[in-house]
C-alpha cells in the first residue's frame, strides 16, 4: 500500500560554503508496519550561477535504525536546470519493518561541498490501521473479561485473611524482593546478552522486568488451590510499589539502553488503572458474597472456568 505523506523541502544555499537546509512540512512523520509510505521531497538550488558544478548529484536517504524501516529508492539523483527553475522533486519510499521510533536521515557525498544544517527527522513506525482497530476491539473485550473475572475472584476473598497477611507481611516481603530486586536484575542481564545491538528492544524488555505483577498470578492461584488472599495482597502491594520502583530502576539502569533524547515517561496512569482494576471489582465481589455467602461455591466454579480460558 502506497501513501503520500507530507512534503519535505530541501533548500541548497550556495555562498562560499553552501548549506543544505531541510524543512519537513509535517510535524510528525508516521509510517505503518508492513506498508510503504511515499514522501514527496522538493530540492531547491539557490545561487545556481555560483554552483554550476552542483547541478546534478546524489542524495542518500536512510533509516537510522535499519531494523525499524527501509528506504527503497536511495540514492536520489537531483538535477537542476532552467526548465525546472532549479527545483527537483522526488519521492522517497519508506517501508515499515518493526514498531518503534527512528529517524529519516539525508546525506551527501564528501566530494560535494555542502553543509547540512539539518539532516534527520524523527519517524514513528506504528501498526497499520486495520490491526489498530482489531487491537482496540480486543483490548475492550479483554478489559471487560478481566474485570468480570476479578469481580468473581473477589467472592473468594476473606477480609480477615488479607489483614493477617498485612500484619505479618513475610510473604509480601518475599514477593516484593523477587519482584523488584531479582526480576529487574535478571531482565537487565538478559537484555544485555540476548538483545545486544537492539537498544529499543533492550529497553522494552528491561521495562517489563521492572513492571508489577498482574492479575494472571491470582487466576493461577485459584486454579491450583493456592492462598488467594495472600496472592491478591501481594498483587496490590507490588502494583502500589511500582509507583516508586519503576522510576527508580529505569532512572538508574534503564537510561543506558535508551537512545533517544525525549524524556522517559513512566506510565503512572496505567499503574493507577491497574490498582483500580484490582481493588474495585474485588471489593464488589467481597460485598456480594457478604450478602450471598451461598453463592461462593458457584462463583468459584465460574472463575476457574474463566481463568482457564485466559
Automatic annotation (TrEMBL):
- Give the signal sequence positions: 1-17
What is the recorded membrane topology of this protein?
Multi-pass membrane protein
**Which residue ranges run through the membrane?**
130-152, 220-246, 266-289
Gene Ontology, cellular component aspect:
membrane
Molecular function via GO = symporter activity
Q: Which InterPro entries match?
A: BilAc:Na_symport/Acr3, Bilac:Na_transpt, Na+/solute_symporter_sf
- Subcellular locations according to the entry: Membrane
Q: Which UniProt keywords apply?
A: Membrane, Signal, Symport, Transmembrane, Transmembrane helix, Transport
Family assignment from sequence similarity? Belongs to the bile acid:sodium symporter (BASS) (TC 2.A.28) family.
Q: What is this protein called?
A: Solute carrier family 10 member 6
Please give the organism: Plectus sambesii
Q: What is the lineage of its organism?
A: Eukaryota, Metazoa, Ecdysozoa, Nematoda, Chromadorea
